[in-house]
TrEMBL record:
Residues 282-316 have a biased composition (Pro residues). Pfam families: HHH_3. This is Helix-hairpin-helix protein. GO terms for biological process: DNA repair. Residues 262-317 are annotated as: Disordered. Residues 271-281 have a biased composition (Acidic residues). PANTHER family: KERATINOCYTE PROLINE-RICH PROTEIN (PTHR48148:SF3). Residues 340-359, 366-385 form the Helix-hairpin-helix DNA-binding motif class domain. InterPro entries: Hlx-hairpin-Hlx_DNA-bd_motif (IPR003583). One of its GO terms (molecular function) is DNA binding.
Amino acid sequence: MPKSSSLHLSLPLIWDHAPGFRLSGPASFRLDGDHLHLQAQVASAVGLRQGGGPLILQLWALDEATPAVVKVAELVDGQLMVDATGGLELSGWTVAHPPAGPAVWRLVLVLCTPASGGSGLTGLDALAFEAPYPWIQPRLAGAVAWRSRSGGEPGEGTLHVEAIDNPRDAGSVSGDLALELWRLSGAFDGGAFTGMCLSTWPLGTLDGAGRIVPAPLDVTLSEQPGRPCLMLREWTPLGWLARDYRWLDDALWSVQVPAEEALVEPAPSEPEPEPEPEPEPEPAPAPAPAPAPAPAPAPAPAPAPAPAPAPAPAPAPAAAAAVPASPAEVRVSVNRGSVEQLSAVKGLGAAVARAIVAGRPHAQLDDLLAVRGIGPKLLERFRPFLTL
C-alpha cells in the first residue's frame, strides 16, 4: 500500500508537512453490512500522544476516471494501542457511507487530527490500497425510459425502470429501498448532494441475489431548476443513502409514445352519413321472404326493385340503430368488456385497455382518471364510447 504525494492534492484536507505521526506497516479495512472496521499501524516521532486532539482515521474513495472524491468512513474514537514492538496500532468500527454508482474506486486511508483552532481537520499522512474496490450494493439494472402520457398535461408521464438487482450474498437482506426523483442543484459523484426531491416510490426490502421489476412510475415534471436524477436509495444507520443513480437528460424526456387521441375523432362520424335508410325499417326482415315473392306471377314486377334495395338492409339495422342510439350501440363496458373489446376503441390501445381491466370495478367513468395513460382530455374523447 504505497504512499503518494499526489493523494494530498486529491483530498480536500489541509496537510501538516512535518507531522509527529505517520502511517506505517500494514493497514486494512473490512466491511460488514453497513459498518466498517479500520486498522492501521502508526509511527510516532514524539512517543505516546500527550494532550492535543485525537488521531482520526478516514477512508476515502477516488474515481480515477473522474475528479470524484467521496469520504466513505471516519473513525474518531478508535482504540490506540501499543503493540509488542513498541509501535502504535489504531483500530475500531464505524459506519460506512459507500459511494453510489457502478464505478470501481481506488481507496485511500488517511490519518488526520483536528486542526488548531478547532476548525476542520489537518491531514498527517495517507496510504493508497493497491487493488481497486467495487462496492457491492443494490443497483439499477438495464434501461430507464421515459414515456409521456397520451392526452395528459405537459410534463406528465411515466418512468420505466427495467429492474433493480441486489448483488449481495444470498441469505442477506437489504434495508428498505426507494426510488426517488430529484432535481440536483449541484454536482453529484455518488456522495453528498443538494437538491429537491420531486417524488418517492417505496420498494421494501430485497433479498441478496434477488431482483425486482418496479411498476411504471407516474411523474409530473416540475419547473424547478436543476438537473433531474433518478436515485435508488437504501435505509441505513446513517439514514437514506444513495446506492445507484441515473441522470435523466433532456434527450430522455423527448422519447415519447405517439399521441393517439386524434384517432378517436373519426369513430362517431362513421354512422352519421347514412340517415337515408331510416324510412326502411321493414326491409330488415326482407332478406328471408325475398325469395318467396320472386316466383309469384302477379308480384313478379315488384321483386325487380326489391333486389335494388337488397344491399341496403345489411347496413340498415346498424344505421337505423345508430340514429337514435348510436352511443348505446357502440359503447363498451369498462367493467365487463374484454381487453380486445376495449382496445378496439380507436386510440385507446391495448396497454390502456389492460390497465382498465386490472383496475376493475369502476364505480363511474371518472374513475378511469386513475388508470395510467388516461388524462382528463383523453377521457372526454373516450366517454361517448364507454359505459359501466
